[in-house]
Amino acid sequence: MTPVDSGIASAAANGLCSCHVCRLVSRRSRFSRHEHCPRCGATLHFRKPGSVQRCWALVIASYILYIPANLLVMMETGSLINYRKDTIVSGVVHLWKTGSWMIAVIVFIASVAIPLLKLFSLTFLLISVQRRSHWRPRQRTRLFRLLEAVGRWSMLDIYVVTLLAALVQLGSLAVVKAGPAAVAFGAVVVLTMFATMQFDPRLIWDPLQKEDIHD
Amino acid sequence: MADRPAQLIACHECDLLQRDIPLNPGCTASCRRCGAVLYRNATDSINRTLAYTLAAGILFLVANSFPIFSIEVSGDRSAITLFGAVHALWEQGVRTISVMVFITAIVVPCLELFSLTALLLPLKLGFVPPSYTLFMRTLQFIEPWGMVEVFMLGVLVSLVKLTNNFRVIPGFALYSFGLLTLLIAAAAASFSARDIWNRLDEMLGEEEL
User: Fold this and answer.
1) Nearest by CB to B73, which of A155, A174, A205?
2) How far apart are the CA of A195 and the nearest CA of chain B, in angstroms?
3) Residue B36 and residue B5 share a domain
């Protein structure tokens, strides 16, 4: 790709704005409040409005909900011979001990590693953006891209609980019930996905620009 | 109305202003500063995406009408469909989870396939799709929430968990979901929003003349 002019220039620094729906680049005045994309009619923003504040709010809410999601019971399994209550982590340990170590690893990645990775990474990205850090913008953008790609896989445990709880309803023989942690964990997944959507990766690059951009 | 500088694009991840250049088939344009994929030259995007979408639509109906799997305990058999699972959870009072599964595994894939068909079929037949901005926005908005492939993995994990205690009989929908996952991935890989906007620009330009 050839950069426009010889210097490195962002669209916003040139008073140009890329539509978030159709990506058409059009000129936008700094001062008028609402301008619309000439092609698709979407409201134009230089940057996602309130990105950092909204992202922080969602991340903090996720941290809080992460506690009950891990302490409460995710799934209750009852049958004639045994009865167990599993949290997310004890469920993984149980899978490992009963020999399904492949499944244990998959569930561990989806339910423990990915949510933690998302929360810590978003916190790190938010702090670095607020400090207007110049540190490795390319790697930070890559981290954000990773978060966008893996976030959805955390829903795995929710689907497993749903299928088991719906299928195994055999009265006294065997019963599986979804526990309260399922709701908290589901909320963590949804909130962190919203948080990732709210974060604007262009903010990582703005401090490298000479001109300040306000929107 | 703002004026339209021709052939400029801004990277959606770092906002670097760059020139839009034509690509060879199968090639990808990446941002020179942050490495984000800017656009691809997806071969025959509209035709291929439409074909995958229509096939996925049919499989989606099949996958939702048959049991995914069933278990058998001392002669008693218990089978489950996707909607049956959502309904059962609702009845058990775990409504938040029930709604989440309903939206991510049924509503969003359904909307996605419908919007794609509503956009691509008219384009293929040579007229401007009605309310195309609405469908393009819908597609973009719901894109992260369609989770058929995650659901498929969930089905496989449940299958392994169940085989420890029960005799599990795989159902017809299990295979349909597997195939549906592949078709949706294929549709997503051949889909190019840029091609659609370009085609719309051409068609609307002709109408003005």
Assistant:
1) A174
2) 12
3) yes
Indicate if B89 and B136 belong to the same structural domain. yes
Neighbouring C-alpha atoms within 13 Å toward the C-beta of B85: 35
Please check whether residue A115 touches B, CB under 8 A: no
Q: Which of residues 11-40 of A touch B (CB under 8 A)?
A: 11-12, 14, 16-18, 20-28, 35, 38-40
Domain boundaries, chain A: 1-46, 51-207
Please check whether residues B75 and B23 belong to one and the same domain: no
**B64 and B28 in a common domain:** no
- Check if B4 contacts A (Cβ < 8 Å): yes
Full 3-state SS string of chain B: CCCCCCCEEECCCCCEEEECCCCCCCCEEECCCCCCEEEECCCCHHHHHHHHHHHHHHHHHHHHHCCCEEEEECCEEEEECHHHHHHHHHHCCCHHHHHHHHHHHHHHHHHHHHHHHHHHHHHHHCCCCCCHHHHHHHHHHHHHHCCHHHHHHHHHHHHHHHHCCCEEEECHHHHHHHHHHHHHHHHHHHCCHHHHHHHHHHHHHHHHC
Kindly state whether residues B192 and B150 are assigned to the same domain. Answer: yes
User: ipTM of the predicted structure?
Assistant: 0.90
Say whether both B136 and B160 belong to one domain. Answer: yes
What domain count does chain B have? 2
**Same domain (yes/no): B160, B117:** yes
Q: Global pTM? A: 0.90
**B26 and B95, same domain (yes or no):** no
Q: What is the mean pLDDT of each run of 10 residues along chain A (215 residues)?
A: 55 88 85 82 90 97 96 90 90 91 94 95 96 92 95 94 91 86 96 96 87 51
Q: What range defines the domain where residue B37 resides?
A: 1-41
Residues of A in contact with B145 (CB under 8 A): 193
CB atoms B144 and A197 under 8 Å = yes
